Fold each of these.
Amino acid sequence: MTSEEKIRSAFENKNWQEIKVTDSWQIFKIMAEFVDGFEKLAKIGPCVSIFGSARTAETNKYYEIAVECGRLLTERGYGVITGGGPGIMEAGNKGAHMNGGKSVGLNIDLPFEQFHNKYIDHNKLLEFDYFFIRKVMFMKYSQGFIVLPGGMGTMDELFEAITLIQTGKVARFPIVLVGKEYWGGLVEWITKTMLQKEHNIHAEDLNLFRLVDTAAEAAEHIFRFYDKYVLKPNF
């Protein structure tokens, strides 16, 4: 019987003690993923994460922009971290790999869609079962986020980063949204509804991210930020 089947059986039979024991043992698997991630990523050096949809085709303009972002970042000595999968993630790793830079992939085990791409350095691929651990790794070891068009996962990563900076839980780092056509409506809603109408954020919160259209603008925002601030990881 698999672990999932044991848990399902425990719920069906209302065996709450067995469920509690199973939850307790999960802690060790969670700890193992944290330790593995910390040990590998702490040795890599300054990196920028590139986010976006796993479904983006190679022919899409945003794929090419992500490749260029990876190239420009590695030219200045930054490594590139992605979610390790296809689409925009593959493109970011591809740009770093083709330019001889550090190419890191934080892959997540999913029942569909996700498989690691071939442009990740063989010793810089990490596999995760838990989304929350993977997100900690992005936050802890990234010196910036470049966010291209994506779906729910991309939005999750974007707003978690903004929230943690806004609340002072992590040191401030640059966040760049690439694609005014894609992100413009969201930024307009944040400005007009969230800020001006409902007053749910402060005006200065709009400065926590930058909206651009090109890879050059995205990379330049990262570089300018660290011309003003000391480059250090979030730990």
Amino acid sequence: MDRLRRILDLTVGGLCCGLLLVLVVVLAWQVVSRYALNAPSSVTEEVLRYGVIWMSMLGAAYAVGQGSHLSIDMLRGWLSRRWQLRLEGLIVLAFTLFAAVVLIWGGMRGVEIAARQTSAVLRLPMSWVYLSLPVSGGVMLLYAGLNAADLMRGRSHHVPAEDMAELPGE
């Protein structure tokens, strides 16, 4: 499990870093072409728009895997350690349902609908843009499964390790 998590982390993190690098280069070219050459590139805006969509979706999936997704920690601080783990399990279940229903099922419907459309400038099939939804949903499902397995083994991203050791006696 730990090896799979490392491979997934390196793959998704590497994709996000590579995509960010491409977006920075494209943005720099857009600025140079617009202000220095006085001939704005029409391609860069679409590349940036679709690149940001893909990076956001992959970054959200990566955040789920790292346990650094948006959360409200106030409730967690009021709970006992045992209930903190139960809350963690509920969060994993919520991400599983969201990824399966909204991102994968709904995303595939969006891909089907957009299959007949192309982007204005690049003439790319819009289904490639919408494909970011089910891809990120699949990655979130993988991470949710790994997080659930960690919880079953008594490991958590949010409950400190020293608190985890005290759980059985509670």
